[in-house]
Design goal:
By secondary structure, the chain is an all-beta fold. The chain has no helices and 20 strands. The chain has one domain: 6 Propeller (Neuraminidase), CATH 2.120.10.30. It has a four-stranded antiparallel sheet, with no helix packed on it.
Length: about 260
């Protein structure tokens, strides 16, 4: 759809769920997670008009691949994956054609970490991601080769997840879910600065925030008043939390937003 919510078009028609899309830097292709009715998840790619659908990953029985993210030069795709049902999730990277798959955060079969939701820095030199460890989830940052892993946002018992790197490279937006909370919050944090709370009405686990290419807007799955009723909808707002408005008609309940270039 357009940034104002008009001209909505359906691109996939399979019985499988299509989740967590990301548009290539040249705007010509879309990579996304496809979840089959039995729960199997793999990464697929298609043209921006929905044509030429094809599978990129094949993690085998019990494995899963999800949360793909294009590198800024369009040559690589980072994603979350686990090769078998008992494995924890790690961050992987592969060529845009699905070849040269390699892990970036694999600490071995005894690890007790789940790494998910990678997002590239605009210069392609770093990757941010969510790390689930014990009872909390925090946002991490590492070099694009997996080295130099460090915490970006410590969240205590809360779950901080679905990070999205700003186009100017100075900030990361992410959602934060407190224990037993009905909705999540949206925070924007600059490097070396406290996080800013910009929204309190996110629908956690339905996809995180996505920056507009010019950095002027964020869009996220939230709850807003539409036609006089509180409804699930995609919401756009300025990074400081102002100018919030729903983008969809009643009943649409959009999830996993991604901006086209």
């Amino acid at each position: 759809m357009n940034p104002d919510g008009t001209d909505r078009r359906q691109l996939t028609t399979s019985l499988a769920d299509a989740l967590s899309p990301d548009v290539s830097p040249d705007g010509r292709r879309i990579v996304f997670t496809r979840r089959e009715p039995g729960g199997k998840e793999e990464i697929y790619i298609m043209n921006a008009d929905g044509s030429r659908l094809r599978k990129l990953t094949a993690f085998g029985p019990g494995g899963r691949a999800y949360d793909p993210a294009w590198s800024p030069d369009g040559k690589q795709i980072a994603f979350s994956g686990a090769p078998a049902v008992d494995n924890e999730s790690d961050i992987y990277v592969m060529s845009a054609n699905g070849r040269n798959v390699r892990p970036l955060t694999d600490f071995g079969p005894t690890e007790e970490l789940d790494d998910e939701s990678p997002t590239w820095s605009p210069d392609g030199q770093r990757i941010a991601f969510a790390r689930f460890e014990g009872s909390s989830r925090k946002v991490m940052v590492m070099n694009a080769d997996g080295s130099g892993q460090q915490s970006f946002s410590e969240c205590g018992v809360d779950q901080c997840q679905a990070p999205s790197w700003s186009p100017d490279g100075t900030r990361i937006a992410y959602e934060r879910i407190a224990p037993f909370a009905a909705t999540a919050t949206l925070e924007v944090k600059a490097f070396g600065q406290p996080a800013q709370l910009v929204a309190t009405d996110l629908r956690g686990t339905f996809g995180g925030p996505a920056w507009a290419p010019d950095g002027a807007k964020l869009v996220y799955p939230g709850v807003a008043r539409v036609d006089g009723f509180l409804r699930a909808t995609l919401i756009a707002l300025a990074p400081d939390g102002t100018e919030a408005r729903p983008l969809e008609p009643a009943g649409a309940a959009g999830q996993y937003p991604a901006w086209g270039r």
